[in-house]
Amino acid sequence: MPVMAPAPSPQAIWQTSLIGGALSPGCGGDLTGPWRLLLLGDGSPTRHLEALTGLPLEIELIAMGLQQPGDGAVPPPEVEELAEPLIRRQVWLRCGPDTLAWAESWWNHDQAQEHLQRRDQPIWRSLTSNRAELFREVDGLARVEAPWLAQRFGREGPFWSRHYRFFRGGQPLTVIREVFSPDLERWLGPAVVI
User: Fold this and answer.
1) How many helices (H) and strands (E) in the chain?
2) What is the spatial distance between Cα 17 and Cα 104, in angstroms, rounded to a whole number?
3) Residue 194 lies in a domain
4) Number of domain units in the chain
5) What is the pTM of this model?
6) How far apart are CA 74 and CA 11, in angstroms?
7) Would residue 170 count as lying in a domain?
8) Residue 102 maps to which CATH number?
9) Distance (Å, rounded) from C-alpha 9 to C-alpha 74?
């Protein structure tokens, strides 16, 4: 599949910064347990999606290239910790016929060259293939919208999103934003307490 131009970052209609992964009342505090684990946990969403569906996760690369002014990117503030020039990568995450998530990530150019040699592979697999230690810190939670997300997910937003950093040796390696399809309710149940 040809790599396309990057999509603009989804628009946040609500967001909160997380300190130590905690949610204050009224800030997404109505999330059900399974959704809290998915959005706030430091485990691999790749593994979670495969475990939920029983199918291998496939990556569909949308775009990967140098971050350009005016390309519609609205990066999380933590991206400022990465040395320029920056590479921005966008992918769809699928299990079988179901598109279950969209993700974008920001990398220092040299780090991207080192760690993203197989562009069709989930980042988690690329970073842990040599069994190197890695630390994930969830930094923010949001509800986002974008017409192109609604079209691909086949559902209207807003959609649950999170962003986090991977650290190696105490240094930030990448910042990743993920947006999850409401179809995950098939396995996780409703996202919020009704």
Assistant:
1) 6, 7
2) 18
3) no
4) 1
5) 0.86
6) 8
7) yes
8) 3.40.1410.10
9) 6
Rounded Cα gap, residues 81 and 58, in angstroms: 29
pLDDT digits (tens, 9 = 90+) for 92-148: 999 999 999 999 999 988 887 776 655 565 554 554 455 556 677 889 999 999 999
**Residue 5: inside a domain, yes or no?**
no
Residue 185: what pLDDT? 95
pLDDT at residue 182, as a whole number? 96
Residues 147 and 67: their CA atoms lie apart, in Å, by 22
Domain encompassing residue 164: 13-18+25-65+78-188
Tell me, what's the pLDDT at 81?
92
With beta carbons less than 8 A apart as the criterion, state whether 126 and 115 touch. Answer: yes
Q: What pLDDT is attached to residue 28?
A: 59
Tell me the two tokens of residue 161: 């999103």
> What is the token pair recorded at 46?
């790749």
Q: Is residue 2 part of a domain?
A: no
